[in-house]
Amino acid sequence: MSVSSIDQHNAEAPTFRTLVDEDGQDLFPFSAIMSKHMIAVARDVMSRMPVEGAPELPEIFLEVRTDHPRTVVPSCITGPQVVLLVNATYSDLWVDEEGMSIRLLFDACGGSSDGDIVYIPWTALASISCPDHEFRLELVPQYD
């Protein structure tokens, strides 16, 4: 078996072809495959959290696209993106295949002392991180 080196200065860029089925659908949509599995990781992390916050839980940061059509946040939150802190004070966590809802306190909003419910579709999640465990996962939000 011999190994040859490639002259990088004279090498041509490889050409790629997309394999499609009879309907023209890409058979290997790699970014969609990766996105699906990365969302599954985020969903798994949040589904391990209890319904109500507790002091011994790690802090989770969720970077969310507020301009996603299905994201629901308090009206005082402006801008296309927000970082939400999920800490010991959250409640009413609900996680399913499409997204999650959670009650969070927004001091700057002057809202209810019980907090406000937010809804985050998984496709609006830009990142999830937990500094206590040196974990960060960046996703590419998808607009329906």
What sequence of helices (H) and strands (E) makes up the elements?
A: HEEEEEEE
Please state the average pLDDT score. 86
Gyration radius (Cα, Å) is 21 Å
Count, helices? 1
CATH superfamily: SspB-like
Architecture (CATH level 2) name = Roll
Given as residue ranges, the uncertain stretches (5+ residues, pLDDT < 50) are 1-6
| Main sheet attributes: strand count, strand direction, barrel closure | 4 strands, antiparallel
CATH uppermost class? Mainly Beta
Which class of secondary structure composition applies to the elements? Answer: alpha+beta
Tell me the overall shape: elongated
- Span between N and C termini? 50 Å
Give the beta-strand count.
Answer: 7
CATH topology call: SH3 type barrels
Taken as a percent bin, the fraction of beta residues is 25-35%
For the largest sheet, list the strands in their spatial order: 2-1-6-7
What is the total domain count?
1
Identify the quaternary structure here.
single chain
Helix content: 10-25%
SSE topology sketch:
Blueprint: H1 30-47, E1 60-65, E2 81-86, E3 91-95, E4 99-104, E5 116-121, E6 125-130, E7 135-138
Antiparallel strand pairs: 1-2, 1-6, 3-4, 4-5, 6-7
